[in-house]
Amino acid sequence: MRTRQEHGPPRILGAARDLALPALREAVDGLHPDLARLCGYHFGWCGIDGSLVESKEGKFLRAALVLLCGQAVGAPAADVLPGAVAVELVHNFSLLHDDIMDNDDHRRGRPSAWVAFGLANAILAGDALIGLALDQLTGLKNEAGRTATRMLAEALNEMIRGQAADLALDSAPAAEVTAEHYMAATYKTTALLYSCAAIGVTLGGGSAEVATVLGGACRKLGLSWQMANDLENIWGDPAVTGKPVQGDLRQAKKTLPVIAALRSRSAAGTQLAGAFSDTAPAESDLYAQAMLIERAGGREHVETLSRRYLDQALAELTTALPASAVVTELADLFRFIVPSVARSGAAGGGEVRALGAAG
Fold this sequence. Notes:
Elements: H1 8-29, H2 33-43, H3 61-72, H4 77-101, E1 106-107, E2 110-111, H5 113-117, H6 119-138, H7 143-171, H8 179-185, H9 187-203, H10 208-235, H11 238-241, H12 247-250, H13 256-262, H14 267-275, H15 286-295, H16 298-320, H17 325-337
Antiparallel strand pairs: 1-2
Helix pairs in contact: 1-3, 1-4, 2-6, 3-4, 3-9, 3-17, 4-6, 4-7, 4-9, 7-8, 7-9, 9-10, 10-16, 13-15, 13-16, 14-15, 16-17
């Protein structure tokens, strides 16, 4: 991976971007012109009219994981680059469709693709990105390519199951939601991260055992990341996150801090159950709900879980691979990915006792 002036994770991500972006753009440019323009807009390369704009591209976290995992088993970047491009395409398929399902009308400070280009075109563009992703791997005429293609297909199936579980979570009555429901929904995040490691190792010539262990580390990373995002979406600094404070509460989303508080069997949890609605609350109620979640121990519990999963991910990383400069870079990237709100220590005393699968 090419060296940039930045240091640490920003350098790693910048190098991954430099490597993957040309192949990513080449793949997208091969689509029907209307879909290529929509995807170019979604990726941040152009405006609605197709004119070039100042770049607003994503962070290429998944590409970086693929490239580093391949490098960790001794492969040059060129050997695993198709996998890095494939996972970025699948990730962006999921973003296009998630924005539609979640009715999110903005992404990266601009109207979402479905708002700018219409619902039908955005759905079709997401489908097209899946096809491009598979093309990246089916073009590799060897056993590693066939295995990586299967891994990507399995990740897609898991992501879709996770998204279905997330939609079910949205529609389930708050009183009936458990941590098991939440954990099923996390596959929409963790499945692709697992495949990043597994595909990188496989295309890099590593063993199936290393691919499995390192994939498991990245799945734990995904759990930590998802839980940290739950915290950030209630208590994060809008100046840092770019999102309004208490955003998930505004949408009555049943994230893990909410579930933890509701099932805490505490006085604050009981009070929250009486106040929490399956419909969007009044703006004046958001702060009170956040305080009840914190008093019931929901915030502290999820902070602890997120840190625990990150620690487990780091431990599995060092189990899968011998110590090296690349493993150090992977560990640094793991820590960088998880928002600091989940690494800052507990917010105070809590009353959460047990949460089943997430405990």
